[in-house]
Amino acid sequence: MARFDPALETHPLLDRALLKDATLSSGPNRLAEGRRRAWFTYPAGNGELPILLANGRHFTRFRDVPTMKRDDHDCLLNDLCLGIANLEDLPQIALSKQYLRRGVPLRITPRTPTETALWVVKPWDRFRLDAPLPHTAEGLEALHTHLQLIYRYKDNNEEALLIGLELFNLLLELKEGVQLSGIAQEGIFANLEVFTQRLAREDARELYGWHPAEDERVFRLRVEARDGRQVLLRDAI
Question: Residues 75, 185: one domain?
């Protein structure tokens, strides 16, 4: 339960009010204690509490996956994929509607720093989102505790990413452009890094790239076999 502690959830306007009302005798943890008290005692506004459980901003979408309408389900799947795309620093043009039609961009991190950004593109229709239910005794109902983001390779093998509520919340915030500096991310993103690296290695014969010298253009690098040789081609798209 400590991971859902309301004291971990910031709310700038409410925090100022809580600090104003708190006294010095409340101790160094007066803001944390005020947030917890507010979660229990503040009246709801427009159907929502003014402060939420930690990582609970998108809880409703997480909970409702098994019963979502198709359009809502597809929208959520797209949002999670865009959250993964925003995990690495991609040029803005790679995330424009024009290029997102091609698929989900996943940046390739070079071994040495370079001004050129390179990424692969994964087709949207190869991703799906499932909500597996835990095994229960007969007559006992249960909700899912994790989601599975599944990618289907060209050979029909699959790669699955397990998404708990914490990672779910962070991916949706990444999609919205929220910066995650200061958050302990190593444990949360460990499986995500493995997932994206495996997808990026699926077919490294075609890459997309961008260079600040031509910041309004995207180019494509691909390898073709010609006369028994492999030829590297660069096309502007």
Answer: yes
